[in-house]
Amino acid sequence: MSDLRNRVALVTGAARGQGRSHAVRLAEAGANIIALDICADIDTADYGLGTEEDLAETEAQIRDTGRQVVATRADTRDQAALEQAVADGVAELGRLDIVVANAGILTYGKDRPAARFRDAIEVNLIGTWNTLEASVPHIVAGGRGGAVVITGSTNGTSGKASEVSAGARGYTASKHGLVGLMRSYALALGSESIRVSMVSPTGVNTPMVSLGGESSMAQRVQEVPWDMSNVLPVPLIEASDVSAAVAWLVSDEARYVTGVNLAVDAGCALK
């Protein structure tokens, strides 16, 4: 396992799903964690988002590893609140070395198309921008270098399923935008020894995918083969599969890896 002892990692969307998995995996590798989540629903989402209880469970699992954790409610769309939450976490834990910009939403509902599109862009793209703007200065100030990983998607390099709804188009557009954002930060921060990359999974077995009834991605996997069609014989991967890639990307084992969009997609992008 990657050795992240004496480092501090920030993870957004940490209450459950991929975010919880990433936070716990990095803690198991030795990192102390700043765990952030909105802990509230967004009304255009077809499923309930993480709760305060979910975030408390993430906090408990991190503490079970023996690592320190600062768990805070924060909406990545609110730049001022996010900056304060990050600053408070850094003040308590003493430093910041790693950022995992993971918070995101995906909806397939067809009502309120303009709101669904905007929410996808604001959470997935602008929220990631806000996260990096709030956190990267702390890594720079440490003078030790560091690593940033952005959660992308197979939809960041294709248009699969984007015609289904405005929310899905917003998701696809936001994930395409994150590829450019990742590359621009990688170029800008290389001289500071800060590596910036992306992990792009296929469908992952998380609440974002499994909840939402007829609007869920899991349902679409069954109904629309071209939506999430993997080459390997698995319909959905597990969050832990993505966390393994994240842990490698932020570790010294990947010390010369930057500007990379790493697919963890069971071959989905091949189709």
From TrEMBL:
Q: Which InterPro entries match?
A: NAD(P)-bd_dom_sf, Sc_DH/Rdtase_CS, SDR_fam, SDR_subfam_1
Q: Which CDD domains match?
A: SDR_c
User: Which SUPFAM superfamilies is this protein grouped with?
Assistant: NAD(P)-binding Rossmann-fold domains
Q: Indicate the family of this protein.
A: Belongs to the short-chain dehydrogenases/reductases (SDR) family.
Looking at the record's lineage, which domain of life comes first? Bacteria
Q: What is this protein called?
A: Mycofactocin-coupled SDR family oxidoreductase
Swiss-Prot/TrEMBL keywords: NAD, Oxidoreductase
Do you know which Gene3D superfamilies this protein is assigned to?
A: NAD(P)-binding Rossmann-like Domain
